[in-house]
Automatic annotation (TrEMBL):
It is an enzyme of class 3 (hydrolase). Keywords: Carbohydrate metabolism, Cytoplasm, Hydrolase, Magnesium, Metal-binding. The gene is fbp. InterPro entries: FBPase_C_dom, FBPase_class-1, FBPase_N, FBPtase, Fructose_bisphosphatase_AS. This is Fructose-1,6-bisphosphatase class 1. Its cofactor is Mg(2+). It comes from the Bacteria. Homotetramer.
Length: 336
């Protein structure tokens, strides 16, 4: 490749598709639509401070939290883009109580279901701090041509065909996996294209960053408290104390740790016995990426992706990142 050659996401998707004999291109088509929606949301995120799009939209989502205007925008745009591509029979979003079935001929014939957290880290919108979109794609289990049903969504994470996130940060990135490693694409705003910038991302097996909301310390399980103490102790051999970094946007916290090595923790607490994060919209897609990059993701006891979901908005304790760090905290948790 010469110095000026770039691989755009579109080209990358097309090249991958051409390696699959008999491919009709439906899946590639869907990924193109994800990228289009991402660019539209990115445009709004970038100008959020200039127009009246910050702040509450006046609705509350199914978790009882205030929805921001940008949440609504991102949700609507992703739903429209995914509906428009005609490859998906139904979509489930963190912002909607039930899944949305695309009840037309195209929708009924769609082979895939799409799950998303359209704008994660929403408490950071107002303050110009990184936020993200998280998505996950499964093959439907109900017959093509019929109405989608809940069982299409309640599949374990191991059944994911693809997962990824868009990070609206100091630059905008789309990072995704289809089960053959993880690749990252950075948006070049001057040409409006995501360009391959992080090929085959591998996360370090050990890291020096721990990311957790320590404000909740008193409510953490004993094993988590002990692990935090371990991170803070001085030990030259293991380069401790580790660094504490917490943005409060899962995508941004995970992305940093993915590249640098580290652990992200959102544990169960006394008042939230299942933690905060959602299995289907947040943890499964991030777990798929973590594992594909050589990392690990667990609920403290078992692999996140092997959990059988029982409801759309199910929450789960979440421990993810460098595999040796996650393995260590799992040991600490079982000690108590
Ligand atoms: P959201 O989907 O309502 O934005 O909530 C999810 C976010 C994650 O991005 C982040 O890791 C976590 O909530 C932060 O929660 P807390 O403020 O409790 O630390
Ligand atoms: Mg979220």
């Amino acid at each position: 490749m010469t110095k000026f050659e770039v691989t755009t996401l579109s080209e990358y998707i097309l090249n991958k598709q051409m390696t699959i004999p008999q491919s009709r291109g439906g899946f590639s088509h869907l990924l193109h639509h994800v990228s289009t929606a991402a660019r539209m949301v990115n445009r709004e995120v970038n100008k959020a401070g200039l127009v009246d799009i910050l702040g509450e939209a006046g609705n509350t989502n199914v978790q009882g939290e205030d929805q921001k205007k940008l949440d609504v925008f991102a949700n609507d745009h992703f739903i429209d883009a995914i509906r428009g591509c005609g490859e998906v029979c139904a979509i489930a979003s963190e912002e909607n109580e039930s899944f949305i079935f695309f009840d037309d001929e195209k929708g009924r014939n769609g082979k895939y279901v799409f799950l998303m957290d359209p704008l994660d880290g929403s408490s950071n919108i107002d303050v110009n701090v990184s936020i993200g979109t998280i998505f996950s794609i499964y093959r439907r289990v109900t017959p093509v041509g019929e109405k989608a049903s809940m069982e299409d969504f309640l599949q374990p994470g191991t059944a994911q065909l693809a997962a990824g996130y868009i990070l609206y940060g100091s630059s905008t990135m789309l990072v995704y996996t289809t089960g053959n490693g993880v690749n990252g694409f950075t948006l070049d705003p001057s040409i409006g294209e995501f360009c391959l910038s992080h090929r085959h991302i591998q996360t370090p097996e050990d890291g020096r960053i721990y990311s957790i909301n320590e404000g909740n310390y008193k409510k953490f399980p004993k094993g988590v408290k002990k692990y935090i103490k371990y991170c803070q102790e001085r030990d030259d051999a293991t380069q401790r104390p580790y660094t504490s970094r917490y943005i409060g946007s899962l995508v941004a916290d995970f992305h940093r740790n993915l590249l640098k090595g580290g652990i992200f923790i959102y544990p169960e607490t006394e008042t939230a016995p299942l933690g905060k994060l959602r299995l289907l919209y947040e943890c499964n897609p991030i777990a798929f990426l973590a594992e594909q990059a050589g990392g690990r993701a667990s609920n403290g006891e078992k692999r996140i992706m092997e959990i059988q979901p029982t409801s759309l908005h199910q929450r789960v304790p979440f421990y993810t990142g460098s595999k040796n760090m996650v393995a260590m905290i799992e040991d600490y948790l079982t000690d108590f």
